[in-house]
Design a protein that fits this description.
GO terms for molecular function: DNA-binding transcription factor activity; methyltransferase activity; sequence-specific DNA binding; zinc ion binding. Its cofactor is Zn(2+). Keywords: Activator, DNA damage, DNA repair, DNA-binding, Metal-binding, Methyltransferase, Transcription, Transcription regulation, Transferase, Zinc. This is Adenosine deaminase. With about 190 residues, the protein is of the alpha+beta class. The chain folds into 2 domains: about 10-70, DNA Methylphosphotriester Repair Domain; about 80-190, Homeodomain-like (Arc Repressor Mutant, subunit A), CATH 1.10.10.60. It is about 50% helix and about 5% strand. The protein is built from 9 helices and 4 strands, in the order αβββαβααααααα. Strands 3-1-2-4 form a 4-stranded mixed β-sheet.
Length: about 190
């Protein structure tokens, strides 16, 4: 089972700024100035972006000379199902462009679809399907900020099969249309 996630530096930075606990264990944030590594959800004061490194594994951070944060305790497991959740999230992030059904996700992590959905929702308060939508919208938001792709190109690039569904889900999650989101990001820069 592969649990490494394919996220850019900017995407991981967004996750730590949002204190997104659903990415805990999938990567670790190390701060060069303090020599401490944390979970993405750590509520400690956020470091300067230039002082941050990301590691896929705790052991990598420790080998690089970082110690575990005493606040978020990234070296401790908090749930017996966290491994399943990590594998599922990694699968969703790495396969978000594909048209996935619950059974495809369950097969990808080696569980029954019923058991996967129950455990995943218990741990994250999302179903695998809604979490997949969250991953796709996060990727779309990143592309809207970082590229000049059209909304339609982004829709298909992040794995949506229907533009109307893309616009509906984006509006529900971000509170605005993709075009409004892009304009808002451009206004912040100016």
């Amino acid at each position: 089972m592969e649990t490494a996630v394919n996220l850019s530096f900017e995407e991981m930075w967004e996750k730590i700024m949002a204190c997104d606990r659903t990415y805990d264990g999938l990567f670790f944030t190390a701060v060069k100035t303090t020599k401490i590594y944390c979970r993405p959800s750590c509520r400690s004061r956020k470091p300067k972006k230039v002082n941050v490194e990301f590691y896929q594994e705790r052991a990598e951070a420790e080998q690089a000379g970082y110690r575990a944060c005493k606040r978020c305790k990234p070296e401790e497991e908090h749930s017996p199902n966290i491994g399943v959740v990590r594998e599922t999230i990694a699968f969703l992030v790495n396969h978000h462009k594909q048209p996935l059904k619950l059974q495809d996700i369950a097969d990808g992590v080696g569980l029954s679809s019923y058991h996967l959905e129950r455990v995943f929702k218990e741990e994250t308060s999302h179903t695998p399907r809604t979490y997949l939508e969250k991953v796709r919208i996060d990727k779309a938001a990143n592309l809207l900020r970082e590229t000049g792709l059209t909304n339609l190109q982004i829709c298909y690039e992040v794995g949506f099969q229907s533009p109307s569904n893309f616009y509906k889900v984006f509006s529900r999650m971000k509170g605005c249309s993709p075009s409004e989101y892009r304009r808002g990001q451009l206004d912040e820069v100016e």
